[in-house]
Every structure is written in C-alpha cells, then in structure tokens.
Design goal:
305 residues; mainly beta; Beta-galactosidase, Chain A, domain 5; 21 strands
Length: 305
C-alpha cells in the first residue's frame, strides 16, 4: 500500500499487484476512485469537474465506487461524503471509515483487500447505526463505470411452461424506464444495457438477481462483480438485490443487501467480490456471452476459495 496524490487529492492510497491496481481516497469518502488492469484504463468513471474537491454541503458523485443506504430518498441518501476519512492498514488492504452522518446518524465503512497475486478485490461494506433509535435500511454498493461499455445481467435459467408454472424472473422498472430504448437487449438468458454518451434520458432496472453476479465489458476488459443473493428475506425496491442505472456520463453496477432494522450501536454488512479480466471478447448474442462468461465465472469462484 502506497500513499499517493491522485486526481487533485493529496491523500490517496494505492493497492496494487501484478494484475490490477486500485486507489482509495483519503480526503473524501469512503470511496474507491480507481480500478484498473495492467492496460491502465480506469474501469471506473471519474468526473473531472469534481476531482480534487473537498468540503461543502453539496453532494458530489465524484465517480468510482461508493456506499449508500437504501431505499433511496432525498435528502437522506444524499449525505455528502466531502470530508476526510480515517484510513487504517489491514492485512492485504485497508479500512476506510467515514465520520457519522450528521443528518442520518449512520456511519459508513469499507474494508478493501486485494489478493497478492490475483485480479480479485474483496470489499466489505458496513453501516453502523449511531443514533438512539432503530433504523431500517439496506447496504447499497454502487460502482460507477466508465462510459462506452455494456452491462451484462444474467436471468434465471429458461424452462418451458410445462416444466414451470410459478414466476422466476422478477424485474423492477422505474417511472423513466423505457423497455423499447435501443440501449437495452432483452435476451432469454442475459439482459444487456449499453452506455451511450449521446443518450439524453436515463434508464434503470432492478432484479432479484439469484445468480449473484453482474458484469461490465469495456474495451476488451471485463469487470465482474459477485455478491450474495439471500432467499426468503426482504429487499428494498420491490425485492431488488441488484440494480443498474445509466445516463450520458456513466453506467452504475449496483448490488443491494437485505433490509435490516438496526438497533442503536448495531451494524450490518454487505460483501462484494470484484474481478478484472483482460482480453475478453463479449459478443452480442446470448450464446456468445455464455461462451465468454461461463469460464470466467468458474475462475472467479476458484479465486474466492
């Protein structure tokens, strides 16, 4: 772990092995502002006009990966993370701890560890209730991806009407979701959402993603996010454990934990595993995606053991 200046912030922390590097901000956060393979391209979006800024009461997206609490509401969700965070070194990584949010009484923390040799990052997201009363919420982990790529979202395996009479693919739409928008491809096995810098209107969808993974393909590099989908529990937004949002600037790959009622002083955590694979050719059809993805899912599973 190296302490470096990055993007106009003097206090950032770099974790790297031979495959990938990531940079965590110390002057704002908690936030991972950069995730890059050997090729050097940041898979996360950086908002140039906000880089290096600190302080103030305005919420800034900055870019990178952040931690929120769901369900989304203003002003609760949009507490600005514009102040310094406490950085503590841990084995193979670091812990970044935010001050207690003055408007919500919630304290955010991330523990970020990098495998010494493999392109695998583990991120433990933790929310702690520092109020004097119970709070109901869900941890919400949002990765803001760089423009020009495509999100790949698996659906539950297909089966015929004769085999299955009960529903298996809950999909949640927002008021501004347009299923006819050309950025969507609604395949039998995979949903694809392309990021388009010329698009004028945002798009969003949520799912009860039982497969527990989603991916983003960008210029030959694949970002794979894995997380647990817990059966028979309550999730926010009509049962979403995964959500994706896009506009003209970026595309978000978001996992969501189950709703929890936190008593004062108690915490809830949500774990993601990130993997970065280079030289991946992702086609546009279900068959082409399946051919490229299946072996990478298997590889990532082995890395997690």
């Amino acid at each position: 772990m190296d302490r470096i200046a990055y993007g106009g912030w003097d206090n950032c922390y770099r974790l790297a092995n031979r495959s990938i590097e990531l940079i965590v901000t110390g002057d704002v956060g908690p936030r991972v502002i950069r995730l890059a393979p050997k090729s050097g391209q940041n898979l996360f979006k950086e908002f140039a006009s906000m880089m290096g800024k600190t302080g103030g009461h305005e919420w800034r997206i900055y870019g990178g990966h952040r931690l929120w609490h769901s369900p989304e509401a203003r002003p609760r969700t949009y507490f600005p993370d514009n102040l310094p965070v406490q950085i503590t070194e841990i084995k193979n990584g670091l812990r970044t701890l935010q001050m207690v949010e003055t408007t919500t009484g919630i304290q955010k923390q991330m523990e970020i560890t990098l495998d010494p040799a493999k392109p695998h990052v583990k991120v433990v997201h933790r929310l702690t209730n520092r109020t004097l009363w119970p709070v109901k919420l869900a941890p919400w982990a949002l990765s803001v991806m760089a423009p020009g790529g495509v999100a790949i979202i698996p659906q539950a395996p297909y089966s015929s009407h004769e085999e299955s009479q009960l529903p298996a693919r809950p999909i949640v739409l927002w008021p501004y979701t347009n299923m006819a928008d050309k950025r969507w491809t609604w395949g039998q096995r995979y949903i694809q959402l392309r990021q388009d810098t010329k698009a004028r209107k945002p798009q969003k969808v949520g799912l009860a993603l039982q497969d527990g993974w989603a991916a983003y393909a960008l210029k030959g590099t694949l970002f794979l996010k894995r997380f647990a989908h817990v059966a028979n529990v309550e999730y926010p937004d009509f049962g979403c454990s995964f959500e994706t949002f896009t506009n003209a600037d970026m595309l978000e790959v978001e996992s969501v934990g189950p709703l929890a009622t936190l008593e004062p002083g108690k915490a809830v955590q949500h774990v993601e595993h990130w993997f970065v694979f280079e030289n991946v050719k992702i086609g546009k059809t279900d068959a082409a995606i399946e051919k490229a993805i299946v072996r990478l899912i298997e590889q990532s599973g082995k890395m997690m053991k």
